[in-house]
Amino acid sequence: MNNVIDTILAHRSIRAFKDTEVSSEQLERIIQAGIAASSSSLMQVVSVIRVTDTNKRKTLAQLAGHQSYVETAAEFLVFCIDYQRHYELNSDIQPDFIELTLIGAIDAGIMAQNCLLAAESIGLGGVYIGGLRNSPSEVDELLGLPQHTAVMFGLCLGVPDQQPELKPRLSPDVIVHENQYQPLDQQKVKEYDQVMQQYYQARSDNTKQQGWSDQVTKKLSKESRPFILDYLNRKGLARR
């Protein structure tokens, strides 16, 4: 093992932060780490909005589903697909292909993960905020996002004020396939369900009696932000 792998394997989502600033030097290195991430064809189709205005933070916390840590974290970054800069270079570009929207979403995720890993490597913690997509048009207006630019998610960063238990993950035997897709090993999933039940019952807060299978099937058995496609279409993305 090495320090990089140790940092990755120790990842926990942090939702409680100390009243301590992230220094300008720390933030600069975190952003540099994000920008250094892989970019499809070097198109660099991601923009990051650093939100420092307290009123905007409060509003974003509410729009994201009343997640208070959006307001209290030392730093809050919003990651966006951004083809507007390319449009300003040449208005003949065609950013409305679904493939380009996928590229933007993938690159945003890669960049944000670089940022979070960099933050964790220097003793900070964070949590992603997909809840911004609950009200994407309102977020657009608040942050002044132009056409060809769409909000993806936020990232809280700060000095951790909690040490949550490490959440178990599915076994590599379930996730990794060799040469071709393999049928689901139901026994492995049952074993994981038992591990998750024990985890949820034993953790320090928000205990519950639920396995992973029940959790995800309930999540996937209802609508999931059905307005997102219309939002992306209005922004000139994912039309064809």
TrEMBL record:
Nitroreductase domain mapped to chain residues: 9-158
Record carries keyword Methyltransferase: no
Keyword NADP: yes
GO molecular function per UniProt: oxidoreductase activity
Enzyme class of the recorded protein, top EC level: oxidoreductase
Pfam families: Nitroreductase
E.C. number(s) listed in UniProt: 1.6.99.-
Keywords: Flavoprotein, FMN, NADP, Oxidoreductase
InterPro entries: Flavin_OxRdtase_Frp (IPR016446), Nitroreductase (IPR029479), Nitroreductase-like (IPR000415)
NCBIfam families from the UniProt entry: PRK10765.1
Homology family: Belongs to the flavin oxidoreductase frp family.
Protein name: NADPH-flavin oxidoreductase
Organism per entry: Vibrio quintilis
